[in-house]
């Protein structure tokens, strides 16, 4: 099993300068390799491979750009690998009929900068991390990494903060719980961040809605500043801080809700929502984006793998909100905007979200019994469904 750990680092002034030089060198290598591929393809009809470009990077250090030797060489080689992956995605999208998205040149004006390295990485204690060329850097290590360290990505956020993401492989995989297993259904929505089949509902933090006035005020101030001035650059950071606070509030609420749900369940079922289609609605786009329903489903999926839980997605056309969880009657009068309704068949009174969560749990148990779920992560193969769950279904 693979895991990634993100830590905030506090580099010194010299370390910050080296990080910024590494950003620039990786960007230069990426752009130069992209230009080389385009020129050779126009002349010969063939473009150089990643291995050939990596050999060119080594040659450039001694002739054209000796300053490349000042930074981590593995980060420069990884920039070439990233370019190769960008072209792989471009060709894949061309074959599948999607939007091609030809690789573009990187700009030094991008507010987000990063580079990746794959050697000399260690986390000796809870307050430091060792990175190549940088040495020991102060860090806030909330959890010690497990398994073998594969690579580390150093990045700078628009607010000027530095983070490092350590990717590890060979992490121990948990076992499925023993004994009777119950499926927890989770319904994601705009009004309620998460409605669970056990009757609990997590209110939406509405991070964007609460900070929208402040964000608009800071953006108006930014628009008044002259381009290229120091005041504009300072105001840009203030706008980025508002965006960062909104994102952190949303991320914190989703992480707490998903972790609590996974720890208190043995199997989780969610609805496969068409979030991209919902975001096209001019009435719901902002609220849907603020709810981050796709992110919640993604966290539930990988956390189920971490804690050894079964995970399944219910089809998006399953009428979870319109079906009575008591008698199974499908009420077609339940439309968007109806929060509570009474079943015409049995007279049961339902909350829209909680009723949908119960129906998702029942449908998820049926799908898991048929072996249609997963152990949490894509590519893990079939579902690790306990025998007791199959017997109950």
Radius of gyration: 25 Å
Give me the secondary-structure category: alpha+beta
Task: Tell me the number of structural domains.
Answer: 2
H/E series, N to C? EHHHEEEEEEEEEHHEHHHEEEHH
Low-pLDDT parts are: 375-393
Q: What does the oligomeric state look like here?
A: single chain
Main pleated sheet: 7 strands, antiparallel
Number of DSSP strand runs: 14
Strand numbers in spatial order across the main sheet: 2-6-7-1-5-4-3
Helical stretch tally:
10
Approximate helicity band: 40-55%
In whole angstroms, the N-to-C terminal distance is 29 Å
> How would you describe the shape?
globular
What's the overall average pLDDT, rounded? Answer: 89
In percent terms, what proportion of residues is strand? 15-25%
Task: Describe what this molecule looks like in 3D.
The model is unreliable at 375-393 (pLDDT under 50). A hairpin with a 5-residue loop joins strand 6 (148-156) and strand 7. Strands 2-6-7-1-5-4-3 form a seven-stranded antiparallel sheet. It has two domains: 3-169, no CATH class; 183-392, no CATH class. Helices cover 44% and strands 19% of the residues. The two termini are 29 Å apart. The radius of gyration is 25 Å and the shape is globular. It contains ten helices and 14 strands. By secondary structure, it is of the alpha+beta class.
């Amino acid at each position: 099993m693979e895991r990634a750990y993100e830590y905030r680092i506090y580099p010194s002034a010299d370390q910050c300068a080296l990080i910024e030089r590494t950003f620039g060198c990786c960007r230069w290598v990426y752009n130069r390799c992209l230009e080389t591929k385009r020129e050779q393809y126009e002349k010969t009809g063939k473009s150089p491979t990643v291995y050939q470009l990596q050999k060119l990077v080594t040659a450039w250090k001694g002739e054209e750009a000796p300053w490349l030797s000042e930074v981590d060489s593995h980060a420069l080689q990884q920039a070439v690998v990233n370019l190769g992956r960008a072209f792989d995605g471009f060709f894949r999208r061309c074959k599948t009929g999607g939007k091609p998205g030809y690789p573009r040149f990187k700009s030094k004006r991008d507010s987000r900068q990063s580079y990746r390295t794959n050697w000399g990485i260690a986390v000796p204690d809870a307050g430091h991390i060792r990175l190549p060329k940088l040495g020991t850097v102060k860090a806030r290590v909330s959890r010690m990494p497990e398994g073998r360290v594969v690579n580390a990505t150093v990045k700078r956020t628009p607010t000027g903060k530095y983070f490092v993401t350590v990717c590890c492989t060979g992490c121990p995989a948990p076992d499925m719980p023993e004994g009777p297993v119950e499926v927890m259904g989770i319904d994601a929505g705009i009004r309620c961040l998460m409605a669970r089949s056990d009757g609990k509902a997590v209110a939406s933090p509405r991070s964007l809605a609460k900070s929208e006035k402040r964000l608009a005020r800071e953006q108006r101030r930014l628009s008044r500043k002259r381009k290229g001035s120091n005041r504009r650059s300072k105001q840009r950071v203030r706008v980025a801080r508002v965006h960062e606070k909104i994102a952190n509030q949303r991320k914190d609420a989703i992480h707490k809700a998903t972790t609590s749900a996974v720890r208190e369940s043995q199997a989780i079922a969610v609805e496969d929502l068409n979030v991209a289609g919902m975001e096209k609605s001019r009435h719901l786009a902002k609220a849907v984006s603020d709810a981050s329903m796709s992110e919640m489903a993604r966290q539930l999926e990988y956390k189920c793998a971490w804690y050894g839980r079964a995970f399944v997605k219910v089809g998006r056309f399953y009428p979870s909100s319109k079906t009575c969880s008591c008698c199974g009657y499908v009420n077609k009068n339940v439309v968007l905007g109806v929060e509570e309704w009474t079943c015409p068949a049995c007279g049961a009174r339902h909350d829209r979200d909680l009723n949908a969560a119960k129906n998702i749990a029942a449908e998820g148990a049926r799908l898991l019994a048929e072996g249609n779920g997963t152990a949490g992560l894509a590519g893990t193969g079939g579902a690790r469904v306990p025998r007791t769950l199959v017997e109950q279904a």
